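Please predict the structure of the following assembly.
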Amino acid sequence: MLKKTVSVAGLLLALVLGVAAVVVLPWLGLAVLAALLVVWLAFTRAGRQTSSVTAWGMSTLPQRWGSVSVVVLGIAGVVGVLVALLAMGRGYEATFRATGSDQRAIVLRSGALTEATSNLDQQSVMLIGQMPQVARNARGEPLASPEVVVSASLTKRGGHEGMAQIRGVGPRVWAVRNRVKIIAGRRFRTGVRELIVGKSAAREFAHTAVGSTLTINGQPWKIVGEFAHAGAHDSELWGDVNIIGTAFHRGSSVQSVTVRLTGAKAFDAFKAALASDPRLKVQAQTTKAYYADQSKGMTHIIGILAAVVAGIMAVGAVAGALNSMYATVAARTREVATLRAIGFRGGVVVFSVLSETLLLALAGGLVGALVAWLLFRHFTASTLGPNFGAVIFQFRITPALIGEGLKWALVIGFVGGLFPAVRAARMPVTDGLREL
Amino acid sequence: MKFLHLVWAALNRRRARTAFTLLSVVAAFLLFGLLESVNSVFAQVGNSIGAAHRLVTVSSGGLMNSLPLGLQNQIRTVPGVQLVTSETFFGGTYQKPKNFISVIAVGPKFWDLHTSLKLSVEARRAFDATQTGAIVGAALARRFHWKVGDQIPIKAMIYPRKGGSYTWMFDIVGIYHASKPLMEQQLFFRWRYLDEARLFGSGTVGWYVEQIADPKEAGRIARAIDALSANSGHETRTQTSSAFAADFYSQYVDFGLIVSAVMGAVFFTLLLLTGNTMAQAVRERTPELAVLKTLGFSNRTVLALVLAESVLLVVLGGAIGLVLAGATVHALQAQMGSELPMMPVGAGIWLRGLAAMVAIGLVVGALPARRGMRLSIVNALAGR
């Protein structure tokens, strides 16, 4: 009785330790563990026994492809879904990351969290531009772009209505946001109703080809160019700030001013200068910090969704793996008993069954990650951003994500393999030999 | 039916295996129930004009664009419209920037339209009589220890006052109650106060809410309201309030796609898993099936027995999964209120779930059942 309690406790301890090791250890730690394992397998008596028993076990895989595929594909499903969902979150985050820079700062009304809730009058815009930390062009004009962001309902290519983000920008925006490149047509002219459209927005919304006329709120706008940007601006339409402010009843005030700083180190001085001017009630952030903040909430929600969905699927996959491995062990009762009878230790049997399951799990994880990569590596999705306009982004499958998926696979394999492995080692030898 | 105990005995033959298989089926249908619960919210977008007593009119440019006040009187004259009120998003923070409050400026008929928000007669009278009066939700009042008679400063998110200050003072004249704490989180004040004191945007409102007499007329009334401002520079779009909410959510994510991709992966692995279990089960029981046949069970009965076993297994697990999903959604809604984008796991989801369960059970059982039906008694009994 006592012995049984102790052994159950030991088993649970092994379970917790194993799972914790996979979850907590970085990949380097796991690699060291694996290397130690290889040394053990190659240079000790028990290790050599284990590897030969495992190799023999693996050689019988083709005979039981049914239960093998349950383990492999069950885990592949979990990892595939997990990687795909996380890739969505990572893609959204990356889109915002690519929009920010240390060299640029965004100035909002103090207390405002997003551009949509901010408001700056003309005097503030002028004062912000006069700060010495703002870079200037050859003619001595400040590289500052006063901007408004509005959202408007446009027809999508599919026929549904969707919110597009329209940004009114200042005349020197090209020097401020210098990674925006015109790829077709030309820039919009100031003072007229012209728009240029981001590459992603052009793919998403109808009537946005260069040369066509887009009707927004009953007013015609001419599309004169298309631009590309690696970040969130690619989902936007741009026009002259004054024209857009008037058309959308914003009056003469703007929402934000984005400036190019004289250098990445100038930000602290810029922030202090704004704070010390009694005429200004504003706050500044580098666009790097601002855009990282903007994506946080959504990335968090997607992370939770991925964990919940993959977690429930993992329970199913563990059950499937347990079933298959118990069946495998049961089918090998006689062989295992024979091994034990000629002197192989119980631990050898445990290790060989466990490592077989882990290898299958790893294979499943790789299959799942590969399928997710094949299906979603060029997949684009659209959602509403913090300013209630569409943000279009591409799924991003990174090596780190695949690593995460493989960790889940190893955990599932470990849980699903440990109990059957121990059962195999515990079977009384005499009963096993009598089994037919 | 009389062979039910046989099917049951077969499932009980290896309890551990049945339990593990059930666990996977439960997990799969728990996920199905939860995802479908969210998906039903989005699916409403399609039947946009459903039966509802309330319509919402927003600018065709989207919620963030305002509408002229003058439209209100025109909407009131549309046949079938009983009540109209305007609502304008104000937003605000109290004391700290982190303490965000949903503050809405409302027209005089607001409380007649939103009867689910319960308010005392005195509070209503005070609200109508006080320019700076505000009515706050019970949960919100508890959070900040507010009581009737308090004067509170709120920092506006969007609108500065004339003179440039963002601080607005409100006198709390009443507290409203609702069925869920999450619906008691708002502060309502008079649109007239906003309009007379704000620096810009005067004469405009955020959106209109209409109460209509006959839900079946919703489509016609919505078109009539939109016709009022056609080609005017501030065109509108009118929808039922549920369609409006669904439209809003669907902008966030193409949820249908995620659901079908995930459920595809889940059901594929489930097929494989239960299929494998059934194949094992039938293989093990070959001699027993042979005995049944010897006793005179027809081929067709043996086929039906195996099929019944697999269908029972999947339906049992699936039902447990859906019950769990229903309980989870219920618990989440009790916690977070009805604004959570999830629908209760109702008859529609159960029907689709049951169809999926039976289909999976039949597909999974088909091959093993055929094997059981075709086995030759002599070979099976001899263990060949």
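Residues 299-336 of chain B form the longest helix (38 residues). The two ends of chain B are 32 Å apart (CA to CA).
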